[in-house]
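Batch manifest, entry 17 of 40.
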Amino acid sequence: QNETPKGVTVGFATCLLFVFLTIPAAIAAKIWYGVSLADSDWLHGSAESLLTVTNLVTVVAFRQGLSYKEQEQSGSTDVQIPESVLSYDPMVKLVGGLTFLAF
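Output type: structure tokens
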């Protein structure tokens, strides 16, 4: 059975979203400005912001999952399962909030 926290799945799905949005951004940079994506500051910055959101969500989800496992294995009696281990919802909200702040 796969014990990967559900929030990690959201992080990797956001990485795919980054890839799928970067391709049209590169095409737009070439058509509109005649330069590569790396030379179009606002398009490149927007794409990199989404990649940063991806990294943050993935790290936070892994950290919560690993912290839970460590507490569970140490024999703590009052271990609470983080919501991101069981549900996609907290990380989806985090992606939405961070993306809103980035743009």
